[in-house]
Amino acid sequence: MYRNDSNYKTNACSKALWRRYHEGIIPVIxxxxxxxxxxxxxxxxxxxxxxxxxxxxxxxxVISVVTEEEHFGGSLKLLEKISEKISVPVLRKDFIKTKxxxxxxxxxxxxxxxxxxxxxxxxxxxxxxxxxLANGIEPLVEVHNEEEFNMLEGLDxxxxxxxxxxxxxxxxxxxxxATTELLGRYKRKDAFLLSESxxxxxADVMRAISAGANGVLVGTAILQAEDSxxxxxxxxxxxxSKTESIEELSSFNLLNKISCRFKxxxxxxx
Length: 270
Fold this sequence. Notes:
Blueprint: H1 12-22, E1 28-32, E2 35-36, E3 40-41, H2 48-57, E4 63-66, H3 76-85, E5 90-93, H4 99-107, E6 112-116, H5 122-134, E7 138-143, H6 146-150, E8 159-163, H7 178-183, E9 192-196, H8 202-210, E10 215-218, H9 220-223, H10 228-235, H11 249-259
Parallel strand pairs: 1-4, 1-10, 4-5, 5-6, 6-7, 7-8, 8-9, 9-10
Antiparallel strand pairs: 2-3
Helix pairs in contact: 2-3
């Protein structure tokens, strides 16, 4: 492990995100996903470990790694390789349903694991939350609707996610940030609220933050960008930019397309 002591401990992910938030920059978690049922091959021959290092160099406070194999092409081995090389906290995204998966996550170097409410009953959700915390791992508990948000009552959570798409459909539906706009009103003051999926540009980030999210998780939009570095920096904007109106972003996006016309491959940063 290359993590420093201030990061590598319980609640490492949310603490790193809060630090970035209080620095006046919207925290953006890049999501490393090899394959998408909707978009196909996302890495396009790039080395995912190099890509993780590239995102860290851009200022990413946390790196997310999708380890689910059947639908997204990930693996625990991928998580292990990335966690060995980067110094920021790592979130494991998978269909976590057992305590053994939590143990495996910790052994592979994860600082946090995703717990998807739609895949767990209330009793198992509570057990897994308690077990992850007892093992020094932070649970990111993900919801998609009001009913699922209500299931979080009574749970001691520091990290909550709103998935704008339906994970039960493997995120091939046409969800958008409207889900965060609907559920953001239920946010807790003491928990970091993350908006996930369907975020493609700065306007989407602004909508999510305006709805109550403290940060966003973005995978495909950064992976498919002509310049992943420039795309990341567009999304991780400073607070001063929040005063812009959504309408003003048409000219913003045009200027950034011009400024980001040079392509970079991840291999350039080996």
